[in-house]
Design brief:
Elements: E1 10-15, E2 18-23, H1 35-49
Antiparallel strand pairs: 1-2
């Protein structure tokens, strides 16, 4: 049986005064005032997703 591989691609989106990280898998991080914190949330998500996700 073939196994599908899903790549995780994250972006940081600005919504008004807030930024949040989003991923192509559907994950969304919390709204943050600091863009750097949203990027950090995205990095943490990629780390937890692992290489096979």
């Amino acid at each position: 049986m073939a196994q599908q591989q899903h790549s995780h691609t994250t972006t940081v989106v600005e919504q008004g005064r807030f930024c949040l990280a989003r991923c192509s898998c559907g994950w969304r991080g919390p709204a943050r005032r600091a863009r750097s914190k949203a990027r950090s949330d995205a990095d943490d998500h990629l780390d937890s997703a692992g290489p096979d996700a």
